[in-house]
Write a structure and sequence with these properties.
heterotrimer; A alpha/beta (413); B alpha+beta (124); C alpha+beta (472); A: 3 domains; five-stranded parallel beta sheet; 9 helices; C: 472 residues; alpha+beta; FAD/NAD(P)-binding domain; Arc Repressor Mutant, subunit A; 3 domains; eight-stranded mixed beta sheet; five-stranded antiparallel beta sheet; 22 strands
């Protein structure tokens, strides 16, 4: 059987970063990508704003990808494209199919870097007709930016996350009319920059606390019903109004794509929807690591790549058996957080916590609490659900903790 | 005249007021100097990085992504869109290949933002 | 001049075409949609009911039993899915026991296999049943099939054996000319000695065009459904029925052949037969009713909602009637799918055989193209070696290769739309709902059917616009 030190699943920004980092250390890596080119979703994200952290300049999605791919090829990392993994077994054998046949690889370590998929109409259950013309934002983006196909002439976008906003501008620039963007929450989930440069610049209305409550159209979308929602996000029937559109784009969130992880029996956190990990990105199966959007949804690609780098370091330690089997600390959170990573902390090193809050907050203190005592805290003027937050917990802080610690939001006043 | 705008420099999103006083722009509401620079630029001559695609022949990909070499005037955005509608590229394309030099006499180029191999299978 | 024209390629039209293709007859099938099996026949519970449910002395009772008996052989011959998973009809309250008893007696009378199960036994066999269950009837012969797969198999077999299928061509009007009918369609005329109206949702309108005196009272009933993720494949072992009421069979929990669970249908009377939208009330009703029979599933596991419309006869029975060489099949609602082979036999016996002496002919067997998903790795390897495109996976959720999609397009009755590809090979049916594969499917359809991507239909119409100058 074909044997490898490390098999990386997914050739997007996490997988590429990890492959580059590992190969530089002389590790025998095989990267497997299901699409016909490396780079992942970046290749269709033609707007710019990527790479400020990693490359200290603003790049478009494709040029960020190309930079990574170039480094990858210079190191002559081995890879397969158009290759689909059928299953990963807990013993780290990986089965995949491509046009050359069925392949089985025995890996010493595996890095899950499969990225995410989009939430669909079925996931959010918009009632109404089921005609053509309802697309997820990513599918519409791919049609437009790679295939030269336009999804509609009069488009409405549900969801004000960055992908929705970017698509509003993109469609406007190809002279489709973007009738509006609706957001079920009372605040936008996108960056202020995108709100201004994608919506305000083109006078596209943003309907907050509003959602689509019905879709009409026999063969093709003809109209949508919008309704305002109450504080429990329930539509208020008397606020309903109709808009004529021929396409609806759904930008209603990404879900880490863990079909393969689940088949392998890896434990998934229902909150982050990604594998449960330790401070070294290791999943519940020793030797299988996860990084990037398969682990949790990021807003900035630079941090996806960074996770790839860090997972590579952890894999290297694992392969060199440098990993200490230390006591770990369970990390929990209060109800202000959607999730926090990692699920267990390592008290023998500095730990980088990543978290996302449930609603916007101002002037609060993010506290790490152990045995009822605040052991570490950071003041935060602004916390937004749209922004992934990070904080470093010094090793000496963790050394004082026992068994578990908890992330809490405390009022600053 | 007073302009009011939301700062995009950081997530704080300050509401900044900008007005002209004896030929000098003044700001209020910003909490840092970066906000002032942004606000004054935004009211005097707003600029935007421009990204789009142009038609591509000779590849399975039907569009080639392009980007402006630096920010263009906001008022030029749709003029550039119109110009690009008539551009057709042939694969192979190289990263940063100039698609249109000195667009609208601005000193700014429109360049390809990825490289694309010529595809033997692709028909045009 | 052809011998027989069948209007409509739903399950009844497909079954008739298949049965008639065994004989020396010239048969044509008219279908107004781009794809066959496009309406009521594909949006239903996908069940072969055991046959205990229809009222005594009805065509439904008689033909359901014939259908249920015929399906196992039919599916075997056509190599289509058939799983006799069995069903549990559950009583949750004391006051439902009398109707349970009644159905038990009826099943015995009709020779439908049935077993009474006490609470403990029900819970043992179906751990995720609502624990309030007090008793259940077990019908081991209730089966699940894939309706459109069945339809495509029947029609492919029929076309391979000489039946002509004219799709994307609608019935417009008909006149009786001497000894035959002249049917005007959206694309031309067809001269046929005899006509069978199997037009489903349109059957009573078509009947009325033929003879204004044929005014069959029909109500359109919409049934909404929820579909769960494959994650819940092993959540249930059987089809679960609540105790039926005067409103019908109620909201069921159906395990589908593919492994998804399906909850529904609701039953709402509507005016417009093409109003097949889901509604908030309908979906809420499913949420409430389904937990009365099974333990609740997380809402996040639901990946799709759909609705089907069925033409419900006010008489509560199928209407199968001849009018001067014209035969109407009207009001084919539940158990229409289960009864289709029975309906076809009935039409042939009572109508076709009146006018023709049926002579069998030599048949060509329809063989499904290879599928990669169900194979073990050795078989997969062999298939890919024969044809590398078998290894190019387009749909990751359901493991569907490019070659399988190409094969589905080039069947005698092949896919002509995104929906057709989805029905025949499943891309778009999984948890990404087409997110990863739809763009690729459009390109393959365009290439194989020699059209532009912007001409590829989603259902009946093209759905994408070229941006800039379109080129292949």
């Amino acid at each position: 059987m074909n044997k490898r030190d490390c098999v990386i699943i997914g050739g997007g920004s996490a997988g590429l970063a990890a492959a580059i980092a590992l190969k530089k250390q002389g590790i025998d890596v095989l990267l497997i990508e299901r699409e016909d080119e490396l780079g992942g979703i970046l290749n269709q994200c033609i707007h710019n704003g990527f790479g400020l952290t990693r490359f200290k300049e603003e790049l478009t999605g494709p040029s960020y990808a190309e930079r990574m791919v170039k480094a990858f090829h210079e190191l002559k990392v081995e890879y397969r494209i158009n290759a689909t993994i059928t299953h990963i077994k807990p013993d780290k054998t990986i089965h995949y199919i491509d046009e050359e046949g069925v392949h089985v690889v025995q890996a010493k370590t595996v890095l899950l870097a499969m990225g995410a998929r989009e939430r669909t109409r079925g996931n959010i259950q918009i009632p109404g007709d089921r005609p053509a013309g309802v697309f997820t934002a990513g599918v519409a983006q791919r049609y437009l930016n790679k295939d030269g196909l336009l999804v509609g002439k009069k488009v409405f976008i549900l969801g004000s996350g960055d992908i929705g906003l970017i698509m509003a501008r993109r469609l406007t620039l190809v002279k489709a009319e973007v009738v509006g963007v609706a957001e079920i929450m009372p605040y936008s989930n996108g960056l202020t920059r995108n709100l201004i440069q994608c919506l305000e610049d083109y006078s596209i209305p943003l309907y907050l606390s509003t959602t689509i409550t019905q879709i009409k159209g026999r063969q093709r979308v003809e109209a949508i019903e919008l309704s305002r929602v109450d504080e429990n996000l329930k539509p208020i029937p008397e606020t309903a109004f109709w808009l004529d559109v021929d396409a609806v784009l759904l930008s209603v969130g990404l879900i880490p794509d863990n079909q393969l992880s689940m088949m392998a029996g890896i434990e998934i956190d229902p909150r982050s929807k990604g594998p449960k990990i330790g401070a070294n990105y290791e999943t519940s199966i020793p030797g299988i690591f996860a990084s990037g959007n398969v682990l949790h949804i990021h807003d900035v690609v630079d941090f996806v790549s960074e996770e790839g780098d860090q997972a590579a370091t952890a894999i290297l330690n694992y392969l060199n058996k440098r990993e200490e089997t230390a006591e770990t600390l369970m990390l929990s959170t209060d109800q202000n957080f959607i999730y926090a990573l990692p699920h267990t902390l390592n008290p023998n090193m500095h730990n980088k916590l990543k978290y996302r809050v449930r609603r916007p907050m101002h002037d609060v203190r993010v506290c790490l609490v152990s045995k009822g005592m605040v052991v570490h805290s950071v003041k935060k003027e602004h916390l937004l659900p749209a922004e992934l937050e990070m904080m470093i917990i010094p090793q000496k802080v963790l050394a004082q903790c026992e068994n578990e610690c908890r992330l809490e939001i405390h009022d600053e006043t | 005249m007073k302009h009011e705008l939301t700062c995009i420099v950081c997530p704080r999103g300050c509401r900044i007021q900008v007005w002209e006083e004896e030929g000098v722009h003044r700001c209020e509401g910003n909490q840092c100097i970066r906000g002032e620079v942004y606000a004054i630029q935004e009211v005097t001559e707003p600029r935007r990085m421009f990204t789009s695609t142009v038609q591509l022949n000779g590849s399975q990909l039907k569009r080639c992504p392009v980007v402006s070499s630096s920010a263009i005037k906001k008022t030029d955005v749709f003029k550039v869109v119109d110009i690009l509608e008539n551009v057709v590229l042939e694969a192979p394309v190289f990263l940063n290949q100039v698609v249109i030099k000195n667009i609208l006499e601005s000193g700014i180029d429109i360049i390809a933002s990825r490289s694309i191999k010529k595809d033997a299978e692709a028909s045009d | 001049m052809i011998d027989l024209l069948i209007i409509g390629a739903g399950i009844v039209g497909c079954q008739l075409a298949y049965d008639l293709s065994h004989f020396k007859l010239s048969v044509c099938v008219l279908e107004k949609n781009v794809e066959i099996m496009n309406e009521t026949s594909s949006a239903n519970s996908a069940l072969i009911h055991a046959g205990y449910d229809p009222e005594e002395n009805t065509l439904k009772a008689k033909l359901n039993l014939i259908g249920a008996k015929r399906y196992p052989d039919l599916c075997k011959a056509l190599n289509t899915d058939y799983q006799a998973v069995g069903s549990l009809l559950v009583a949750m309250h004391e006051d439902e026991l009398s109707s349970l008893n009644e159905l038990y007696e009826r099943a015995i009378r009709r020779d439908v296999q049935v077993e009474r199960l006490h609470r403990d036994e029900v819970i043992k066999r179906e751990p995720n049943i609502n624990p309030n269950v007090i008793e259940a009837l077990f019908f081991p012969t209730t089966a699940i099939i894939t309706p459109w797969q069945m339809g495509y198999a029947l029609m492919n077999h029929a076309v391979l054996n000489g039946v002509e299928l004219r799709r994307n061509e609608a019935f417009v009007s008909v006149v009786r000319v001497d000894d035959h009918y002249c049917v005007t369609t959206s694309k031309g005329t067809i001269q046929a000695r005899y006509v069978i109206n199997a037009a489903g949702l349109q059957a009573q309108s078509v009947a009325k065009i033929q003879n204004p005196l044929n005014d069959y009272p029909i109500q359109f009933r919409k049934g909404e459904y929820q579909v769960s993720d494959l994650e819940d494949e092993n959540y249930l072992n059987h089809v679960i029925y609540p105790c039926p009421s005067n409103k019908g069979k109620g909201v069921l929990a159906v395990k589908t052949v593919e492994g998804n669970l399906m909850f529904g249908p609701t039953s709402t009377v509507i005016e417009d037969p093409y109003n097949h939208g889901t509604t908030k009330d309908g979906l809420d009703e499913i949420d409430i009713k389904i937990v009365q029979i099974i333990k609740p599933l997380p809402k996040s596991h639901l990946i799709r909602q759909f609705a089907g419309v069925r033409p419900s006869p006010v008489s509560k029975d199928f209407i199968l009637k001849e009018d001067k060489g014209w035969f109407d099949c009207v009001g084919i609602d539940s158990p229409g799918l289960a009864s289709a082979p029975g309906i076809s036999e009935y039409v042939i016996e009572n109508f076709v055989q009146k006018y023709f002496i049926l002579k069998r002919k030599a048949m060509v067997e329809f063989i499904w193209p290879h599928r990669i998903h169900p194979q073990d790795e050795a078989k997969r390897a062999a298939m890919i070696e024969m044809n590398p495109r078998m290894g190019k996976i387009i749909c990751v959720c359901e493991t569907v290769s490019e070659q399988e999609i190409i094969d589905a397009i080039h069947l005698p009755v092949g896919a002509r739309s995104v929906k057709g590809v989805k029905r025949l090979t499943r891309p778009g049916s999984g948890r990404c709902q087409g997110g990863f594969c739809e763009t690729a499917v459009v390109k393959i359809l365009a290439r194989e059917l020699k059209m532009l991507p912007s001409e590829v239909p989603y259902d009946n119409e093209a759905f994408l616009l070229p941006y800039g100058v379109e080129h292949e």
